[in-house]
Write a structure and sequence with these properties.
mainly alpha, two-stranded antiparallel ribbon, single chain, 2 domains
């Protein structure tokens, strides 16, 4: 039974690392193809006489066309792979933040205003994402109109981001909240 549980815990991480390795290998392949195409195109640029010499012109033009198209294709594929790698990293980072405690999330979202935001949230909700007082909900007890405008969600990440948007829109002075960080 314990071995089955261990396998279930290890499989997602293994699949994730295999997928990351596959993306890394794809990017390496695309970059290698780009390097080869660039070398051929540089060679043809440095030896442009090959394009006009009747003995070599047909093949030189063919190689120029092939490697120009191949370079464009490899550049597109490399860009797409880089984007996939970045998206995967962002998803992993958000998952790590989503599983973090509300104080850690608040500090990550509010940055240099971390201490103030923690004081306001502690006073408003006791740092609880499920806190509710009439229409006011969440870590920062935002009302229904504010939630509609700035967003909201069940997680500390969603609530902290919405409160930060509200905080910035209000001039970074905590005026919309009953609790103040200096009280």
């Amino acid at each position: 039974m314990a071995a089955c549980a261990l396998i279930l815990l290890v499989l997602p991480a293994t699949a994730q690392s295999q997928s990351d390795a596959r993306l890394g290998a794809q990017l390496t392949h695309h970059l290698s193809a780009m390097k080869k195409d660039q070398q051929v195109l540089r060679f043809l640029g440095a030896h442009s006489w090959l394009l006009s010499d009747p003995r070599f012109a047909t093949e030189a033009k063919r190689q120029l066309r092939i490697h120009t198209l191949s370079l464009k294709r490899s550049e597109r594929k490399a860009a797409a792979t880089r984007l996939a790698i970045a998206e995967r990293a962002k998803t992993r980072q958000l998952a790590a933040v989503a599983s973090a405690s509300p104080p850690k999330v608040i500090c990550r979202v509010f940055g240099s205003y971390c201490g103030q935001a923690l004081a306001v949230s502690r006073c408003e909700s006791g740092l609880r994402t499920d806190a509710q007082n009439g229409q006011y909900q969440g870590l920062f007890q935002m009302g229904s109109n504010e939630r509609r405008i700035f967003g909201h969600g069940p997680t500390a990440v969603a609530q902290a981001k919405a409160a930060h948007r509200y905080f910035v829109a209000s001039g970074r002075d905590w005026s919309p909240w009953s609790c103040k960080p200096w009280a």
